[in-house]
């Protein structure tokens, strides 16, 4: 009960912030990003290290510019998400100005084979969730927050009034729940570029750097025979307008060999991220775990604050 009450209060505060005009919110986001950079906050340090690892050939001055833009879009995305969580879904979806590849989604639904939607951390994935829920019931795999308040807040803000969204915790029972939904011809949404626990994935290159990558998506695709699609909502310029894109996944994602599957998965996510690197989530420690025997076991270790 306590966690629910605090979550309700946080939701009310988020709604208050989200009631501001878009231009004010974006200016606030730019101010947050400038503060991160001037204080060399965690977001700034992690983004800098990720860009060093993933784009080593980029001239230093260009990397600094890219880091600044990454922080700017990250802060704006956080405030956008408050809006999408607390404003009407119809109003949110009105911001989707362009649609690409939605015929692939319609065909996949009609096939009755089940659909796995792989949604990288690119653009705004919360808006994508709402578009998918508008089209069909779906289950979303998520990593539960450590706190009960955080869990209660997520359940509240991602709830769909028509009960069309089921949140599935990424734990031991997740595979059975998702597999059943796919066998019934349903839709499952997965963020494929989160680092799994050691032993729950396989290493594959991501921007040329070994990254521990989930094998769950490939296993579900191979066992269920579901159609796998990539989907994302990318911003158009710096305005609150979005382009929703859906693309077919390569067949190799459903390979029996886990190494083949995760390699194809990472290659697809990387290709999407390269569309506009400023819209990818570079503030996440993607490379914390490295293969045994690597020269650097954790490339972020020296970033920890004194």
Could you explain the architecture of this structure?
- The chain has eleven helices and nine strands.
- By secondary structure, it is α/β, with parallel strands linked by helices.
- It is 48% helix and 17% strand.
- It is globular, with a radius of gyration of 19 Å.
Which keywords apply here?
single chain, 306 residues, alpha/beta, seven-stranded mixed sheet, two-stranded antiparallel sheet, 11 helices
Q: Structural class, please?
A: alpha/beta
Distance between the termini: 38 Å
Going across the biggest sheet, name each strand in turn: 1-9-8-2-5-3-4
What percentage of the residues does DSSP assign to strands (E)?
15-25%
List the secondary-structure elements in sequence, H or E: HHHHHEHEHEHEHEEEHEEH
Q: Classify the helix fraction into a percent range.
A: 40-55%
What summary fits the major beta sheet? Answer: 7 strands, mixed
Number of strands: 9
